[in-house]
Amino acid sequence: MRRRPLPGVWQPGDHPGRRKCAALFGENGNELALEGGGSLPEVSVAYETWGELDRARSNAVLVLHALTGDSHAVGPAGPGHLTAGWWDGMIGPGAPIDTDRYFVVCPNVLGGCQGTTGPASAAPDGRPYGSRFPQVTVRDQVALEVALADHLRIDRWAGVVGGSMGAMRVLEWCVGYPERVSRAVVIAVGAAATADQIALCSLQVRAVRSDPAFAGGDYYGTVARPLDGLTIARGIGQVSYRTGYELQSRFGRRAQAPEEPLKGGRFAVESYLEYHGDKLAGRFDPNSYVVLSEAMNHHDIGRGHGGVAGALVRVSAEVTVVGISSDRLYPLALQRELAQVLPGDRPVTVIESASGHDGFLLEIDQLGPVVASALNERVRASLVAPTSQLLDGDLELDVLAG
Which end of the chain, N or C, is less packed with Cβ atoms under 10 Å? Predict the structure, then answer.
């Protein structure tokens, strides 16, 4: 039977691009047990690599993406990749994560839609999971990444690096598998999801689920897709990832030419949010957006460890905590609280940016030296560059933080 294309979803048989896929469970009754109960009997992971693994298998760096990222951290758009890499400039020969020195691995997260098992993947009965896909947590996602490390025969990472949802997984690696992490860079996140973050994520989930085309999550066999709900969710997220100052500076009350708001037209900022919502809808699966948003809401490094302090005392890696000066979603206070409890009593490195939470994707000139230094030695505050200028309003930023 001919496979039905699923917009925004990479499926086996599509052009692989740079991704590789590993089947990690399903043999001899081996299943991925999930924190909330139940299991996944068959799990595949899509990942990309750069550089060469040394003979001692000791130079591997794990890079973990945020909410709507994927394994394509760097490189151009093209066959198999709908967009260019979400962290271009950070990974490569001579780059901050230097592939002349490191073997870099970036997997697509459990629950995603770009090659790793998620709601759009085929269940054992051959049909897409849809509404049957189980609840997963950040801890489950890391358990799958541990299985990938075992598959690659990497016993200990030279570094684990990530921002936002990726940083949640960095923390879980450090707490759950301390013997397997030498150094870690935790960017723009806290030790647990706050009520504010849960509220914003829950509104985005409700927006997706309230779309009539969502059909309870079982829309894969239908012509309609719940794109309206996803575009609204993206708009809510985009506002929280940026700053009021930046939006005012870029758009103010300007109309979207040639429209007139008093006559039913849009303000420029409305057009901006709709544009990015439409872009995301073309490359991401609504079910994955729901699953991953809910996983973020369950983020709590202290769960099952006697609280945050009980969890972080387990950490043996040298951890660098980085925050964005204008981040209103994951404000600096959260990184400072995290750093105070982590062993080593190291200060938070602050990236100066007017772009809010998305600064970890945008301020490569500042963040790059911090990451490079963190992977090699203790961060020197003098490496942090001056405040960057606002981005040109025409630049496209497709990758949501989170």
Answer: N
The reported pTM is: 0.92
For residues 181-185, give the mean pLDDT: 98
**Is 327 in the active site?**
yes
- Per the residue annotation, which of 72, 81, 299, 357 is the catalytic one? 357
Burial status of residue 373 (CB atoms within 10 A of its CB: 0-12, 13-18, 19 or more): buried
Marked catalytic residue, from 70, 98, 327, 358? 327
Q: Do 129 and 45 share a structural domain? A: yes
List phi, psi (to 5°) of 41: -75, -25
Let me know: does 314 contact 305? Beta carbons within 8 Å.
yes
Same domain, 42 and 148: yes
d(CA 84, CA 216): 32
Same domain? 284 vs 325: no
Q: Is residue 393 part of a domain?
A: no
Mean pLDDT for the stretch of residues 144-156: 98
CB 121 within 8 A of CB 18: no
Residue 357 is a catalytic residue: yes
The CA-to-CA distance between both ends of the chain, in Å, stands at 38
- Find the CATH number of the domain harbouring 262: 1.10.1740.110
164 is catalytic: yes
Reported as a pLDDT band with limits 50, 70 and 90, residue 384 is very low
What is residue 378's DSSP assignment? S
| Mean pLDDT taken over the chain | 92
Of 44, 71, 121, 164, the active-site residue reads: 164
CA distances from 24 to 20, 40, 44, 58, 390 (A): 13, 11, 6, 22, 43
